[in-house]
Design a protein that fits this description.
Radius of gyration: 20 Å
Oligomer: single chain
Order of helices and strands: HHHHHH
Mean pLDDT: 89
Low-confidence stretches: none
Number of domains: 1
Strand content: under 5%
Number of helices: 6
Distance between the termini: 20 Å
Largest sheet: none
Helix content: over 70%
Number of strands: 0
Length: about 190
């Protein structure tokens, strides 16, 4: 009788596939559905997601908050903030799954590969920190909360740096793995 191996390569591939499906569904809900950004655009056609601002500053936050209007801000607090509490983990799960597959392919013991793959959730925690401060900013508008804005900017920068660093490291490791044939029998 075959025993179930939760961290087998086959199961990791299935999990990666499922997390990618979840990511596509999450993007749809977050961006296109009436519960997400699609619903907010009906209330505030010029609005953008406050946590997608490139190089955020307090002035940019205020411009976005103003463009959202009262209805858009209320919608953000009621709907989008809720989605954005889960979404950071939805977009980091495929990276962590793929990291596990790559690291297992390099010959790392499965437990070590699993532990290292958890580092790919770090951007999600920075994203949650950013979301916390954005919630405070939106809920207190029009009163400007400069301290919360500065914390949101710090968390936004840390999220972007760690996400990009981990993502590009994953790509480089995979290229090296393919280029140099560092594929070994999984342990």
């Amino acid at each position: 009788m075959k025993t179930f191996e939760p961290f087998s390569i086959k199961n990791a591939r299935v999990f990666l596939f499922l997390t990618l499906i979840l990511l596509v569904g999450g993007i749809y809900v977050f961006i296109y559905s009436d519960y997400g950004m699609g619903g907010m655009l009906k209330l505030a056609p010029d609005a953008v997601l406050i946590d997608t601002i490139q190089k955020p500053t307090p002035q940019k936050y205020n411009q976005v908050l103003q463009s959202m209007g009262e209805g858009g801000r209320a919608f953000y607090l009621k709907n989008i903030h809720r989605i954005d509490t889960i979404f950071p983990f939805i977009y980091t799960m495929p990276m962590a799954s793929y990291a596990y597959l790559i690291l297992s392919g390099l010959g790392l013991y499965k437990k070590k590969a699993l532990i290292i793959s958890f580092f790919f959730f770090i951007p999600a925690f920075f994203d949650l920190g950013e979301n916390y401060y954005l919630y405070r900013i939106v809920s207190n508008y029009p009163k400007e909360n400069l301290e919360s804005m500065l914390w949101a900017i710090k968390f936004s920068n840390l999220k972007g740096i760690t996400r990009d660093l981990l993502f590009y490291t994953l790509i480089v490791v995979k290229i090296l793995q393919i280029g140099f044939g560092f594929v070994t029998k999984n342990r």
